[in-house]
Every structure is written in C-alpha cells, then in structure tokens.
Specification:
The protein is of the alpha+beta class and 116 residues long. It is 15% helix and 23% strand. It has helices at 54-62, 79-82, 111-114, and strands at residues 16-25, 28-38, 69-74. The chain has a 3-stranded antiparallel sheet, with helices on one face.
Length: 116
C-alpha cells in the first residue's frame, strides 16, 4: 500500500462503492455506468448470466482491472492505486471483519512453495 494510504475504518464509509463505473476492453464496453455502494456488514451477492461482467467487476474491485472512467473505492481506497497485478494475491480485513473481498495489501502465502 502506498505510504499515507490507509483503509477507512469509519463505519459510515462504504466497504465498496462505485460511481459511473465504466470498463472497456478494446472496443467492447463490459461495464457501463455502474452505481452502487455496499456498507460494512452487508452480505451481497453478484449474480448474472455468462458474459455480463461479474468477473470484470470483481477484477476491478481487487485492483487488477483497468477502469475506463468513473470511480471505484474499497474501504475508501482506490484499488488500482494500491495493487500491482504482478504482485499476486491481496487481502486485508482492515478492521472491517465482514468485508471478505477487500484487496489492499500484498500477501504471499507459501510464496516459496508456490514459486513466487
């Protein structure tokens, strides 16, 4: 995580929030204008047909998918500012226990055994 960047522990800050979120790959728009916020402690499902952008959204949330425009934050932090896709997996409970898919700090579990 870059110096000076810390996840918010304010219970009034959305665990995950998107505003006008657009993601494109080449000429194809995958996500168009998503608006949502998920507050800490909420259980939320992501359901949709094949090709609807579920995986693309999850990749954006963990910071490994480039966002075309709009904003996305996880515990008040912009995922792409703290994640380098080449660093492997990322996880943090950030004091928010209920947020299970929050990728904020690099983590290498069994790195030597896995060849990292």
């Amino acid at each position: 995580m870059p110096r000076g960047t810390a996840p918010s522990q304010d219970p009034d800050t959305a665990a995950i929030a998107a505003s006008g979120l657009h993601v494109s790959r080449g000429r194809t728009t995958i996500l168009r204008g998503l608006e949502f916020s998920i507050m800490p402690g909420r259980i939320t499902g992501l359901i949709g047909p094949s090709g609807s952008g579920k995986t693309t959204l999850m990749r954006a949330i963990v910071g490994v998918q480039k966002i075309s425009r709009g904003t996305l934050s996880v515990l008040g932090v912009i995922p792409t500012e703290v994640v380098n896709a080449a660093d492997g997996g990322f996880a943090s409970d950030a004091g928010m226990g209920s947020v299970m898919i929050v990728m904020v700090e690099p983590c290498r579990v069994g790195g030597g055994a896995l060849g990292f």
